[in-house]
Write a structure and sequence with these properties.
Elements: H1 7-20, H2 37-50, H3 64-77, H4 79-93, H5 130-139
């Protein structure tokens, strides 16, 4: 739906934007013109999709700090929750929602000390000197 190219994709993206635009809060700031909401939302989606740090956001999405500040503000005041909920309802209505789930089957092993075993009273046991410390404590 979003990744298409050509005339049909432009029409689809225009329809998508028309569904999202009324949900966005109006700009209350006076002075400097506001960065285009469309660029900012695309920056948020790029960050969520790639996992890139905010500071490494490509310049085509506008200043990274603007994208971050708007993401933070909209997530705090519920704008993003409302927007995602409404888009989800529309996507389900036209049967465009992808319900596939991908599960990673890799195995991650924890270190033996991360298993919740009881620790000795000193850090010497981690270096192999635990027996010597215990003997010294019994000898007292």
């Amino acid at each position: 739906m979003i990744l298409g190219c050509g005339a049909q994709a432009r029409v689809d993206r225009t329809k998508q934007w028309q569904a999202i635009e009324p949900l966005l809060p109006a700009s209350g700031a006076k002075g400097r013109p506001r960065v285009d909401d469309r660029r900012v939302i695309n920056g948020m989606l790029f960050t969520a999709k790639t996992g890139v740090a905010w500071r490494d956001l490509p310049e085509r999405y506008g200043p990274w700090k603007t994208v971050y500040n708007r993401f933070w503000r909209w997530s705090r005041n519920g704008t993003l929750t409302t927007m995602v909920g409404n888009v989800r309802v529309v996507a389900e209505a036209i049967d465009e929602l992808d319900h596939e789930v991908s599960v990673d089957s890799s195995i991650v092993r924890a270190h033996q000390h991360a298993a919740g075993a009881r620790r000795t009273s000193t850090t010497a046991s981690h270096t192999g000197g635990g027996r010597i410390v215990r003997r010294a404590q019994r000898a007292r």
